[in-house]
Amino acid sequence: MLIECIPNVSEGRRSEIVTAMADAIRAVPGVHLLDFSSDPSHNRSVFTLVGDAAGVEAAVLALFDRAIAAIDLRTHKGEHPRLGAVDVVPFVPIDAATMADCVALAKRVAATVADRWHLPVFLYEEASTNPARKNLEDIRRGEFEGLAVKMQAPEWAPDFGPATPHPSAGAAVIGARMPLIAYNINLATNRLDVAKKIAAAIRHSSGGFRFVKAAGFMLDDRGIVQVSMNLTNHEKTPIFRVFEVVKREAARYGVQVLESEIVGLVPAAALHAAAEYYLQIEGFKPDQVLENRLKMRSEK
Amino acid sequence: MLIECIPNVSEGRRSEIVTAMADAIRAVPGVHLLDFSSDPSHNRSVFTLVGDAAGVEAAVLALFDRAIAAIDLRTHKGEHPRLGAVDVVPFVPIDAATMADCVALAKRVAATVADRWHLPVFLYEEASTNPARKNLEDIRRGEFEGLAVKMQAPEWAPDFGPATPHPSAGAAVIGARMPLIAYNINLATNRLDVAKKIAAAIRHSSGGFRFVKAAGFMLDDRGIVQVSMNLTNHEKTPIFRVFEVVKREAARYGVQVLESEIVGLVPAAALHAAAEYYLQIEGFKPDQVLENRLKMRSEK
User: Where are the beta strands (DSSP E) in A57-142?
Assistant: First the structure.
């Protein structure tokens, strides 16, 4: 049973500190650090790690230990909104893990973090116990600088930990969510209005699909436009359906889809679903994929 | 580095013998028996196993040992053509294994089998060293009963082993090939002629795709017809291209594709290729699939 975790840390400039954090994650047996990257203008780093629940828990706690010792939000500057030293920690089910496994893990880690470092923790997304505190953006609004005042309101009491921010490390947002797919569709036109109209048509916030966030951009160097998306639940809003609707909407403006691109990682199941859809495959079972069958045997 | 092997054995009625063969394969460390099935009317069993080269080699030799002891072709009856006790042994590259790895393994196993049991062995498909002896059907033509006469011709001298058949075990055909995908497309019509015409249009033998074998069938219980296919190299003749041509050919007769089905196992890469094609994904790399990235890390 594997769980992915993508902690976001408020340090993207001092590379020796980020490297030490990566080393601390790698040192946990059974945990694989798949990727990490820093953005100096955001002053923020993102780690992608995978392991069983106990391993991922140990790695995240090791990351908190280093981050709280090294980062002081009172002097931290960066373009990206943030609330704490370890800002956001989503746990994501992959393989045979369920969302319930990830919610349980998020709560366990939140309780330990609050207890060990006297840090307030807010639960978000699937781990949230309060519908008004599901969205990360809502929890983070006001940022570190506004946190002490915000937490005085009863509706912003943390799920775990003290009622006031940690002086240097602020607060953490910990939760569980589906894997996120960063997916872009490039259109064979330079008409930015078309990309923006299509983005508005498909994103949840303006009436589109439940699990799509989208915006239209110009790719100046290529003279084309892009519908840039985050797909936040590929099981309920699958890639192929979004692609087909974008293609259809583009045709309405006389525009063709040039290509699409997946940025970063994608779960195999999201690609298999697209193959099943287009090839009209009936009765397909995941254990028909050779690699899945093999994995099931290896785990016996 | 993993290799798949799908040995076909000329015994499909005495289940205790087939079960003992399966147990012998399972007893080899690091080898996974993914599947096995027997067809009594064919009097033949097919095993699907996966492991590293050394493990698969040991399992195949264990299978030969049991088969040669238990099977006598002089009294064997069955509908399926066969030449020997272990009739055909294809090695298939999966994961990071290459075709060259499988050809080398086929030749090593062939030499050992010939030497240990005084059994003639013919190499086939990618392991063949003779263009006229690449196809299994050509090698097997005449079957066990015609083998002694056939082998008197110089062009049918075996690649390894004695110049005459083994008295009870005949000969073996050992080689290397790409994974085979059993793929069917069902048409929303009861017109068998349409299925037969489409099968003829797409199969290699009558002018179609290089790596497609196809036939048209009636599915009596459903009142529809099927184009039944074997795709013998999904990299060079991909599923999506075959599907699109079948759909196009069907439209020419006013017929629609009802559904398709994959029978048995399919390599994940064949499904990923279909997703890439239909979603027009540019610049996609296999290591963007979360599961692949994870596997690469685990192997380090």
Answer: 86-94, 121-125
